[in-house]
Amino acid sequence: MSAATIVNLPDPLTARIPKDNFLTRENGLLSWLLTSDHKRIATLYLISITFFFFIGGALAGLIRLELLTPQTSLMAADTYNKVFTMHGVIMIFFFLVPSVPATLGNFFLPMMIGAKDLALPKINLLSWYLYIVAGFMAIYTMIVGGVDTGWTFTTPLSTHYVNTHVISTGLAIFIAGFSSIFTGLNFIVTIHKMRAPGMTWFRLPLFVWANYAASILMVLGTPVLAIALVLVVLERTVGIGVFDPAKGGDPLLFQHLFWFYSHPAVYIMILPGMGVISEVISTFSRKRVFGYTAVAFSSVAIAVFGFFVWAHHMFIMGISNYAVLVFSLLTMLVAVPSAIKIFNWTFTLYKGSITFETPLLYAFGFMGLFTIGGLTGVFLGVSGTDIHLTETYFIVAHFHFVMVGGMLMAFLAGIHFWWPKWTGRMYPEKISQVAAVVTFVGFILTFFPQFILGTLGMPRRYASYPPEFQILNVFSTAGASILGIGYLLPVLYLIWSLRYGAIAGNNPWQATGLEWQTQSPPLTENFTEMPVMDHEAYDYEWLEKQQQANPQKKEVASAG
Amino acid sequence: MDHISPVLWQFLDKWLTNFALFPPEASKIAPQMDALYFFMVLVSLVGLTIVVLLVVSFSILYRRSRHPQAVQIEGSTLLEATWTIIPLGLFLVMFVWGALIYFRVFTPPANAMNIYVVGKQWMWKAEHPGGQHEINALHVPLGVPVQLTLISQDVFHSFSIPAFRVKREAIPGRYTTVWFEATKTGTYHLFCTQYCGTNHSLMVGEVTVLTPEEYKAWLASSTSGNSLAQDGERLFASLSCAACHNARPDARGPSLAGVYGSRLTLSNGQTVTADDAYLREAILNPSQHITQGYAPIMPTYQGQVSEEGVIELVEYIKHLDSNYRVDQTLNTTGFLPENENGKPPAATPPPATPKEAKP
Q: What CATH architecture applies to the domain B113-222?
């Protein structure tokens, strides 16, 4: 194997997947449905969120097809409204929010801190069941006719002016919210109570820090969304009038409640992704993350500031000019920790020893797209330019750069990075590198034209639009079809690799995290003996010494 | 950005507009906002270029085949301070610059002419003080500050004119305002940008900027015969408002003469300015707005008066300078049906828009 790769696989002739691992320990459907093993629950989550991602993706495809022409040609305006509403609901509550925490976080967070499971394994299973119940309710809603309020449920539209299934959707999100509260709670307790001996706070991998910050947001923010949705349901069913101006209510109150959750929710979605990026960049440049403490605290700073910027969604809604001033200023402050992270990751590469396996390619994609997404967020946080750009395709492009360009890239980086640990087998490298590039190109082509459309003034959530906007929409739809291929490829080759992928061994990337110091796939109890953390996080010199001192542990590395 | 060569600016603007990559600049605020926009585009491009260049050059310099052994570096306080402080400084510049523009957009000048806009599913209704009514269209004069007072009859809507770079939500239950001064004649898009249900994307229209002469001609040709204040006067009479608000010594309600714009002391001790929003609230929700010294006997008119009706009443009260008008209303109440055509011109308030004439 050339020096240009760090991949170190056991001898393919003799290597075997360990007979006893969390996948093989028990068999049968019930052993999965009643499991309390965090790794099995993570696997259940991975299958379910992938399912919802492809439903949400199909809806996105319908949106882009409709927007190919200026008129409403493919579907009626009502149908279009339902399609974009369900796209938003499914992608946000059933894919983005649980994506990294419930799959990669669930699987690797306990392993990274040297624990044998999460602190509350049964609550963890309950989280998944709540998620599934909520997911079925969302699908039921779609089958019986859908909902057309937009994922933002703006009152009084959602309370008095639509005849669609607001209540079942609201309850689905309410239940999904509890699923994420329980996951957050579980993570917080686990990180506080279950760290292995020697695993101090500042030896935690940055992935753990990022999930900790996101968990705080989940636990504190989600209840407010739950309250807002309950109020919408009550107003719709019994007309309590909290949001109805005719009864002395205030429709702006809903905006405050909704965004008090839904802005932090953006950080719930992106922070765990940032954690993945820290792990990947460190591993593939063989270097400790530059300014570990700054990166760790910037996650916490984002979580704290994230709670005080919600009203920047309301700059033109007639809130006081001085409130706008305060929220705009706070928004500028929350942009800074993200900038710090980007530069710290960049300088992690400095004097590293870099190899370009798929996870790093996705991480690079993340850095580029997230930088654009973050900077265009400043355009919207600045009160003056927000007037022109808000509620247009500019904002659509902005949050897709952050959520899809950022978060989804990070998720795919993480899936590829930890796939060998999860399944014991490698994904095929070449084709997955191609997929990463295809995704990046497709993404830029889909969403970059939308910045221009937004600047031109094209409003979001329009089923039909003035003909002069068509050419840019055609580009966007073309890009979306490339993006679709980019997302289908990993599903195909990852399934292929389950049977035909090369045996990965314990630590194919020679990474330092505790999760890599055990077999792949791991045992049900993760470690054969309680691990002791006697070194800092990302200590590659420790790893080398370890491998020299323990030749039998090197068994997997020697074949490379 | 007016300082940098205006010729170059005009050329750029024209080129970008014709290639439909940039919206026309047709209001006074547009070039100011675009200057900030391009400043931010520039900063973003520089920032992005720095990140991309660093990632690419580090990837080339420190790839494993060229640099097989990583050098461990803990971090650098100096570097980290640099990339904390410089972005923060730039963001703060943008914040201040943006806030200045924001305050400009939402602080109408005192001499702005007012047009009411009512949003409803799925149309925009513009109510000019002179009694011109428009649907999904708005005619405004060139070079005159125009204030829009917006309200929604049902759900949230948002009134957006991209060529003017202004946008404001129309909200049920409260007035919001925005203003602009058109600088280029022509026809521009008008969009509803807040999702409002089925035909959201059909809640579109055109804003037409006319020269002052054309605008005068348009006003004359489009009038419905009555000004908003005159319609308000009729409504005032038919709702029997003058039964109480008549300025007689034994009147059960306060006199409304000259009330608009004055400071009122309420029965709960609060002092308020009687502006459009206050008057609207006082009509629809009177029990919360009792003037000191009066009994809370006024019934609510919630559900009895449409938003347009409230606007007409407010316009009428605005034009009440003396109680003569209320007496007049009392006197003419009995003749309501005939009033349509038979009103003496002397009693008509001035065309209600003295500010419309170009200064």
A: Sandwich (2.60)
Q: pLDDT tens digits, residue range A41-97?
A: 999 999 999 999 999 999 999 999 999 999 998 999 999 999 999 999 999 999 999
Proportion of chain A above pLDDT 90, given as a percent? 89
Quick one: CA torsion of A63, A64, A69, A74, rounded to 10 degrees? -40
Instruction: Report pLDDT digits (tens) over A297-322.
Output: 999 999 999 999 999 999 999 899 99
Q: Does residue B149 sit in helix, strand or coil?
A: strand
Task: Please give the CATH number for the structural domain made up of B228-356.
Answer: 1.10.760.10
Residue of chain B whose alpha carbon sits nearest to that of A539: B72
Q: What is the pTM of this model?
A: 0.90
pLDDT digits (tens, 9 = 90+) for B56-78: 999 999 999 999 999 998 888 99
Structural domain spans, chain A: 38-558
3 state DSSP class of B119: strand
- DSSP, residue by residue, A22-55: TTTSS-SHHHHHT---HHHHHHHHHHHHHHHHHH
Please name the member of B51, B62, B105 whose beta carbon is closest to the beta carbon of A342: B51
Tokens of A302: 């984002």
Indicate yes or no: CB of B21 within 8 angstroms of CB of A459.
no
Q: Do A375 and B44 touch (CB under 8 A)?
A: yes
Does the beta-carbon distance from A328 to B97 stay under 8 Å? no
Within 8 A of B88 by CB-CB distance, chain A residues are 332-333, 336
Instruction: Sketch the domain layout of chain B as residue ranges.
Output: 6-65+76-105, 113-222, 228-356
Kindly state the tokens that stand for A498.
């389950």
* A-chain residues near B180 (CB < 8 A): none
**Under a CB-based contact definition with an 8 Å cutoff, are residues A522 and A112 in contact?**
no
Q: Which residues of chain B neighbour A321 with C-beta distances below 8 Å?
A: 102-103, 106-107
Asked if A5 is an interface residue toward chain B (Cβ–Cβ < 8 A), one would say yes
Share of chain B above pLDDT 90, in %: 53
Q: Please, which residues have CB within 8 angstroms of residue A212's CB and are 6 or more apart in sequence?
A: A187, A188, A191, A299
Chain B residues close to A375, C-beta within 8 Å = 40, 43-44, 47-48
Is there a contact between A321 and B106 (Cβ–Cβ < 8 Å)?
A: yes
Q: Which residue has the higher pLDDT, A174 or B294?
A: A174
Q: Which residues of A touch B202 (CB under 8 A)?
A: 77, 464
- Interchain contact B19–A (C-beta under 8 A): no
Q: Which fold would CATH assign to domain A38-558?
A: Cytochrome C Oxidase; Chain A (1.20.210)
